[in-house]
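Q: What does the assembly look like in three dimensions?
Context provided by user:
Components: two
Sequences:
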Amino acid sequence: MGEQTTLRSSRLGRMAAFAGTGARVGMNYLKHYGQRCVGAPQDENLLHERNAEAVYKTFSELKGGPLKLAQMLSIDQGLLPDAYASRFAQAQYSAPPLSYPLVARTFRREMGKSPLEIFDSFSETAAHGASIGQVHKAVKDGRAFAVKVQYPGVAESLRSDLRIVKPVALQILGVRESDVEDYFREVEERLLEETDYKLELQRSQELSAASSHLDGVSFPRYFPELSCRRILTMEWIEGLALDRFAKGSANSEERDRIGQALWDFYEFQIHTLRFFHADPHPGNFLVRDGGLVVLDFGCAKKIEPEFYRRHFRFLDERLLDDRDALLSSLEDLSILLPGDTDAYRSRIAGLCAESIEILARPFRKGFFDFSNPTFMRSIYDLGERNRRDENLRGFRGRRGSPDSIYVNRAYFGLYSLLHTIGARVHTRLPDWLRES
Amino acid sequence: METREKILHAFREQVARHSELPASVIALCEPLGMSERDFYNEFGSLEALESAFWEELVAKTIAAVESGAEWEGFDARQRMLAFLYAFLEKSLDVRTVLLFRFRHLSPVASPEWLQGMERRFKGWAFSLIGKGVSNGEIAGRGRLVVLYPSALYLLLRSVIDFHVKDTSPRFERSDAYVEKSVNLAFDLMRTQAIDSAFDLLRFLAPRACGKS
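A: Here is the predicted structure of the complete assembly.
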């Protein structure tokens, strides 16, 4: 990883960077349609991929807010074409590192001491980067630590970055601002929370203590005395990143075990704690000695019992046969509004029934094989179909609860992680849904 | 405290408290119980005094960074970054004076009272450039390389300029500015671009460059 060579110091510079992308995307479309006119066969996916590359390049150069934003947009399959989504999903690994003197400076300012006054050794280059910070490895008294240092100024500039970048980004990506207003508000709130490492420390400790009884899941130890607003210190854990594990040579028994641990961890958080790790990115999990280690609680979401009930009511298959119950559940979540026409209502109800049928499949039999590609394919297809449906433009944002964004993100992320791992897991509907 | 230190201290207090330069040598020395003779033993004029004041800020910064544990392992780019961060840190002690003197000063102006700082910094930067050239971070292009310390001095001045206007909490934006501008400067010094930039700067601001 080379240190960052392209610079965007001023807001104007940032705008210029976006204009550059706009032009590049435009050129790619021109090439695409140009070739189409002269009759050369052209793959639409190829075009998306080329554009994704250009857009991605711009976002990753900008770091901070814009990169986060791109990652967020990539969660929701309905918002972005596949090629963009998969390109952005890798973003976490690619942000360029900060210089060591700046890291030392941040230490001195936040902790009053330089890294070497606190630790016996401290790696000058980052072990890995994240969108708003980077992780260094440090040693003290023979013990290894992972020290996350936040980019200076990120917290302060995030909000203004988002405001400036949002309209331009939306235009490049081809979505309308009014369609995604609530979405952005919710995302912005979570992003700003992520810049507060004190809050992250508190949540990490809280969630890992609450989940410590789970089988096959463990958490690093956290060190409040070595942490502050901009620096977060935890135990260093040697392990295999989850995506490497997935690509590696693990046998099906090992895969099932990791998958089950992941499933149980999310089920417990969402259905019992109703407070969960909302960033199911493969970089946030490690595999060590056949067990799962969960890192990074920067993005965590709490849901209210009332919303929880309304939302997970849709796991109940009986809704598929009971049209009135389905419609009233949709009204409860304000996905359907009182003024909707009958035609619209039945159309939405149909779509929702289809989504429920697909998304609730893992729960149905008490056992599910995520390695089966047709399941993921049908989720993607559903998303892609909805995205292309002109009548659904503007549907999101004005309807439904913004709370569902992170619940969906968690489940969608969980499903795709389990698919990548190729795991078969035992599943179980929450008790209140089985009895009633 | 030695006479020299006392005078420098009195200068700083005077400027910080009253937002104006000492009116005369007498006005500065009398409250200290010193004679004019004592003053002129140390400094040739009030301008020389102020020049020494700013030179000392740079000298102390250099001493602080070079005694750091990581210094020996740093390459030229990291050394420049470390210097600027340390300079920002040190300048917090004299921020009022810094604001008074630099807020309305163009970053390319080269007044009499900054001669000491400029000379001292360029001397240090010269050896920094030497290190950069010897380890391949900076393209060595014969006589043009002697202009690089001037480029780094301009960078320092632009950082000061940014810093005195910065109002972000804990001056985090200044940190980001340092990081980005040093990276740009060293990227440029790897290529031909800086030669052309110099040509332009010398054309626009003949007073600022090529004077040393």
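Follow-up: The CA atoms of residues 183 and 405 of chain A lie 7 Å apart.
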